[in-house]
Amino acid sequence: MPRVDGPGMRHFRGIDSCGIPSAYWVIDCHESPKHLFHQQVCKAFDVLYVVQKEDMRYFEDKGKQCFWVTVACDPEIHCRYPLEQKIDIAFVGSTKRSFYPERVRLLERL
User: Fold this and answer.
1) What digits encode the pLDDT tens for the residues 67-101?
2) How far apart are CA 46 and CA 31, in angstroms?
3) Which of 75 and 7 is assigned the larger pLDDT?
4) Which of 60, 85, 91, 97 has the greatest number of C-beta atoms within 10 Å?
5) What are the pLDDT digits (tens) for 10-36?
6) Could you give the CA distance from residue 29 to residue 43 in angstroms, rounded to a whole number?
7) What is the pTM of this model?
8) Phi, psi dihedrals of residue 18, rounded to the nearest 5°
C-alpha cells in the first residue's frame, strides 16, 4: 500500500496491521513541524522513499529501509509546449507567512 506525503499532517491509522507491504514517500521533511510528524509516521511503513537526500539520516537511524527518490520528470512526457506567454512570473509553492516570511516578502515585491 503506497502513501504519498502531502501538505498536511494526516496519517492512515492501522497500515502496519494490514499484513501487506507498505511504502511512504516522504516530502518536505526539512520543515520543523513535519519532521516530528514524519518520525512518528515512518514507524508504520516497511519502506521509505525520501525526497531530500540529506534527510535520509533521520530515517536510517530508525532502522528503516530508506531510498532517495527525488522529485523529477520525464522529458519525453514533460516537454516544452509552444504556448503564448501571458504572464511574466509564476510561482508554485507555499506562501505560509509563518514558515516562509522571506519568500512572501520577495513575492510581494515581485
Assistant:
1) 998 777 788 887 777 778 888 888 888 888 777 88
2) 23
3) 75
4) 60
5) 556 666 677 788 888 887 776 666 777
6) 15
7) 0.56
8) -80, -20
- What number of CA atoms fall less than 13 Å from residue 72's CA on the CB side? 8
**Distance separating alpha carbons of residues 37 and 11, to the nearest angstrom:** 9
Instruction: Retrieve residue 65's grid coordinates.
Output: 529501509
Phi/psi for 24 (5° steps) reads -130, 125
Here the contacts of 65-72 (C-beta below 8 Å, separation 24 or greater) are 69/25, 71/27
**Separation between Cα atoms, residue 50 and residue 78, nearest integer Å:** 22
Q: Which residues pair with 68 in a beta bridge?
A: 50
Main-chain phi, psi angles of 49, to 5 degrees: -115, 120
* pLDDT value of residue 13: 66
